[in-house]
Write a structure and sequence with these properties.
Blueprint (H helix, E strand, L loop, with lengths): L1 E4 L5 H10 L9 E4 L10 H11 L2 E6 L1 H5 L1 H18 L2 E6 L28 H19 L12 E2 L2 E6 L9 E7 L6 E6 L5 E5 L10 E9 L17 E4 L3 E5 L2
Parallel strand pairs: 1-2, 1-3, 3-4, 5-12
Antiparallel strand pairs: 6-9, 7-8, 7-10, 10-11, 10-12
Helix pairs in contact: 2-4
């Protein structure tokens, strides 16, 4: 799911983005959210947490109205940045109108396009090109598997049944490989089907000493990787998208 944060005054740009992003519906579609969606008496924090918990990407339409919104700056943006740090929520933002964005918490996050010119100031052709770039970045994020950051440094047994590997459900089948410290050999563990997060993994043998490290990678490929019969996969298959590597620690 793709979470979109915007000010109600910038609905024109939301509509333009939704039109450009229509082919991305296969990834769960865009879920716009602004202060106009808050109903009187509604407890909005659980709603935002729910949406962000399901989202792989947060797209921000940044403008003077965006920065002037108390709801966005005090509730929505802090929740987005918290999810970015906690579970690697991808944040993509585009400058809709010139504003003091450098005075906000967005300053260290690179925009998808040159911030010397805003969408408002672009020609129609350049506006379409910029919105296309946003959508292409969304697509790249959605198709890249993300290993659960909670795995880093985790203690694991020899066999981990249905180990939760992915931070978000796979969009397409993901192939999983493991190698030991000081080894260049990767061993295929199997695949995670679309919609899944888990895979049964093996870390060494019953003679492996406690404290030995193992590295995990996950990738999408053009075709399924066949069963390797316990042999190392040499060479690794050509991948479409590759997750960042995570290291775990073997226990007895």
């Amino acid at each position: 799911m793709i979470f979109v944060a915007y000010s109600r005054q910038d609905k024109k740009w939301l509509d333009e983005l939704c039109t450009m992003a229509a082919p991305l519906k296969k990834y769960g579609g865009l879920r716009p959210y602004s202060d106009k969606d808050i109903k009187p008496g509604q407890d909005w924090r659980p709603e935002i947490d729910k949406f962000l918990g399901e989202a792989a990407v947060a797209v921000l339409l940044v403008s003077r109205h965006f920065l002037a919104s108390k709801f966005i700056m005090e509730v929505e943006l802090p929740a987005i940045l918290k999810a970015r740090k906690a579970r690697r929520l991808e944040v993509i933002w585009v400058l809709v109108s010139h504003c003091l964005w450098k005075e906000s918490d967005l300053e260290p996050i690179q925009a998808v396009s040159d911030t010397s010119i805003s969408l408002e100031d672009m020609s129609a052709g350049k506006q379409s090109g910029t919105l296309k770039a946003v959508c292409e970045q969304i697509k790249a994020v959605m198709e890249t598997p993300v290993l659960d950051p909670a795995l880093a440094g985790r203690s694991v047994a020899q066999r981990m049944q249905d180990l939760k590997l992915l931070a978000r459900p796979a969009i397409r089948r993901v192939e999983v490989f493991i190698r030991a410290d000081n080894s260049g050999d990767w061993y295929h563990q199997g695949g995670i089907p679309a919609g899944g997060k888990t895979c049964t993994c093996w870390f060494g043998t019953d003679k492996t000493p406690a404290g030995k490290g193992y590295h995990i990678i996950a990738m999408t490929t053009k075709s399924h990787v066949p069963h390797q019969g316990g042999k190392a996969t040499k060479p690794l298959p050509n991948f479409i998208k590759l997750a960042r590597e995570v290291r775990v620690i073997r226990r007895k």
